[in-house]
Amino acid sequence: MIKKLRAMLIGLGKRKRFTIAVVTICLYFFIITSLPYDQALFHVIPLAVLTYVSVFFGILEDVERLEWIQLFILPVYFVVAALFFYYLLPVRLLTRIPFTIITFVCLYAIFLSENIFNVGVERSLPLYRAAYSVINFIMLVVFLMVFTLLYSFSFNLYMNALTGTIIVFPLVFHGMWIANPMEVVEERIWKYAAVLTFLLGFGILIGSFLPLRTNVYAILTVAMSYFLIGIAQEIIQETAYRSRVREYITVYAVLLVLITLSIQF
């Protein structure tokens, strides 16, 4: 019975399964966002579980070993972060509809990209590079939502650093893995993820001393994430050429200058 059901689902084709999965998640997401914040909190875990199951339903074939974790990190993080982030916006129908549409587009892009990593496309192929770029971009969006949410709680600086470090480790780990996706994680992936997470936590701690608005503080941390993860990915892929490193340094430096100019003394 199970084999027949699996064969029937596989026969649907991945694109159809992706569409069904993403539509299901977004319908539930849309319903939750109609609720007050205190009631929506009770739906966070069911939404995360639904997202996990939907990713498996969409990809279905050849999910093995570490992929049971890696392929599911970003979709779950994205949906949960988007739900919390929504309540920082004006809560009305004109916000819910476009926000849900954007969530649908991003989530569908995540499904397509994670599937490419799952099937093991060669890193030299344009398909891999496209998926790699999409995932990196959406990861930065998730970082922005997560850090904005974190700083909006107005924790003390040590709680900010500790909470931020714990929350971002899976995302950083995923960022390292997509640079060289394998069923068995290389030891260096763990090491890079641990070191970068520590550096981000330290950066969050230092940033707490600066008189920055919440959104600017979040952008500062995202810029740091972009710089550290980007350089580490280039090292893992053995493409850390001087010109590429210079690009990361230039972008990070420009953002630092703009953020410095926004400091309110």
TrEMBL record:
Q: What keywords appear on the UniProt entry?
A: Membrane, Transmembrane, Transmembrane helix
Tell me if Glycoprotein is a UniProt keyword of this record.
no
Positions of transmembrane segments: 18-35, 41-59, 71-89, 95-117, 129-151, 157-177, 189-210, 216-236, 248-264
Tell me the superkingdom of the source: Bacteria
Whether Membrane counts among this entry's keywords is yes
**Would you tell me the protein name for this molecule?**
Uncharacterized protein
Q: Which organism is it from?
A: Candidatus Roizmanbacteria bacterium CG10_big_fil_rev_8_21_14_0_10_45_7
